[in-house]
């Protein structure tokens, strides 16, 4: 009976978001409360669980996600992303242009959220395709594959970062494993797959997208690269140095303090405010306005992430998590495969990769309590499943279709298959890493 109620609640969540078109934040609140009532939780405990679910999920995420949004916005507004793209084009040349686009998406995808990266990169994609007279999909798909992989797999993006927190994974290890898995996924779903769909005809809505910033107004290449990747460099370098100075207590503590994501992101913002802001001629007041706009852009994402933690907490506090864990054991499926399947099904139903990943976390959370699973790989398995088979209920599907001027059929042939390839390669990579580690 418990599982029937749980299935009914998840179905209700799907219908509220997809059919009723209710805001996901409100849908999670309603379904979480409904689940608690149906599972027989005492009324006095329901509000406590709701508050704890939101608080525990957001407590360690708000600072990182907000500062990450600020960094991404400044990278976009300063022209650093455009400078990185130009440098990649010059380095790779016209013959290997699609590889340059993939690498650009990989680099700018670290600080930029997918939707921000998409809107920012579209003019660059159009400009490159127009300049080199290449098919638009052939140029654009490799970059967008990279952006999608980085968004779905790696912290500090919202869903992977929330999963790292919920499963008590290590952000540095997850990022390292994610990079290992991301590279083959990007290569196969990007440059290699793009060759097979290069003949698809596109009718972009406007050529004005080819306009970009004058090159002499852009920040330098070294400045752009270092500023964009600084959080990754700081966390990775200080973590490594802390192991080298393990015998020196004060040095080790200082390095681990900087390696903590909140502190690394704060230090990054302080530095890039100068390197990409003041140094390029921007006033501090205008930089603060950019930061304020960035936080507005992700306000709803924060609420959705927080509310998604409610379901996990309700299942845990009601005792249902133990029943779920026992049932998963009876299925005799590899836990990482099971996590991927659950997330992929939710992705098909809900559309949003972020919401699918966060919802799946509540369902598979009991696995971490009762089974010996590497939490870093569990984060990546759910991340891979959250990208599976993007279709008509996903806003990214329509962004790609409309900007590239495609038919529904051709969008399925290109975008949907690309996302599915990324998801499946991601699962294969997770299983391969699990086998190697064990």
From TrEMBL:
Is Lyase among the key words of this record?
A: no
Alphabetically list the UniProt keywords: Cell membrane, Membrane, Transmembrane, Transmembrane helix, Transport
Membrane-spanning residues:
26-46, 58-76, 96-129, 136-154, 174-194, 222-242, 254-277, 298-316, 336-365, 377-400, 420-437
Assign the protein's first listed, main location to one coarse class. Answer: membrane
Q: What does the entry list under GO cellular component? A: plasma membrane
Which membrane topology term applies here?
Multi-pass membrane protein
Annotated localization: Cell membrane
What InterPro entries does UniProt report for this protein, alphabetically? Answer: Glcn_transporter
Q: Does Cell membrane appear among the keywords? A: yes
**MF term (GO), any:** gluconate transmembrane transporter activity
Q: Which NCBIfam families match?
A: gntP (TIGR00791)
Name the family.
Belongs to the GntP permease family.
Name this polypeptide is given: Gluconate transporter
Lineage, top ranks: Bacteria, Pseudomonadati, Bacteroidota, Cytophagia, Cytophagales
């Amino acid at each position: 009976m418990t599982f029937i109620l749980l299935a009914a609640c998840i179905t209700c969540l799907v219908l509220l978001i997809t059919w009723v078109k209710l805001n996901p934040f409100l849908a999670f609140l309603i379904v979480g409360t409904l689940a608690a009532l149906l599972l027989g939780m005492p009324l006095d405990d329901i509000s406590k669980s709701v508050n704890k679910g939101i608080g525990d999920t957001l407590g360690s995420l708000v600072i990182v996600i907000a500062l990450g949004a600020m960094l991404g916005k400044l990278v976009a507004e300063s022209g650093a992303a455009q400078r990185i793209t130009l440098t990649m084009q010059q380095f790779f040349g016209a013959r290997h242009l699609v590889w340059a686009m993939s690498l650009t998406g990989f680099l700018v995808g670290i600080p930029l959220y997918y939707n921000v990266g998409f809107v920012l990169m579209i003019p660059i994609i159009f400009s490159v395709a127009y300049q080199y007279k290449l098919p638009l999909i052939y140029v654009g798909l490799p970059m967008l594959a990279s952006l999608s992989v980085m968004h779905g797999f790696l912290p500090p993006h919202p869903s992977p970062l929330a999963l790292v927190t919920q499963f008590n994974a290590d952000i540095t290890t997850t990022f390292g494993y994610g990079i290992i898995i991301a590279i083959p996924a990007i290569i196969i779903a990007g440059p290699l797959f793009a060759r097979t769909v290069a003949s698809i005809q596109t009718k972009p809505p406007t050529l004005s997208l080819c306009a970009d910033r004058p090159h002499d107004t852009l920040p330098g290449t070294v400045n752009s690269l270092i500023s964009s990747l600084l959080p990754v460099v700081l966390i990775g370098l200080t973590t490594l140095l802390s192991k080298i100075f393990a015998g020196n207590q004060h040095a080790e503590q200082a390095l681990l303090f900087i390696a903590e994501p909140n502190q690394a992101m704060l230090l990054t913002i302080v530095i890039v405010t100068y390197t990409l802001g003041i140094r390029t001629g921007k006033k501090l007041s205008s930089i603060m306005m950019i930061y304020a706009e960035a936080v507005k852009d992700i306000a709803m994402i924060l609420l959705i992430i927080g509310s998604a933690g409610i379901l996990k907490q309700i299942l845990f506090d009601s005792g249902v998590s133990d029943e779920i864990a026992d049932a998963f054991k009876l299925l005799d499926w590899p836990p990482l495969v099971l996590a991927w399947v659950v997330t992929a099904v939710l992705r098909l139903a809900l559309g949003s990769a972020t919401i699918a990943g966060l919802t799946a976390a509540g369902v598979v959370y009991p696995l971490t309590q009762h089974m010996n699973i590497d939490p870093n790989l569990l984060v990546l398995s759910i991340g891979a499943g959250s990208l599976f088979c993007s279709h008509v209920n996903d806003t990214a599907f329509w962004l790609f279709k409309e900007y590239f001027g495609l038919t529904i059929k051709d969008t399925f042939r290109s975008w949907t298959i690309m996302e599915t390839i990324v998801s499946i390669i991601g699962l294969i990579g997770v299983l391969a890493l699990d086998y190697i580690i064990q």
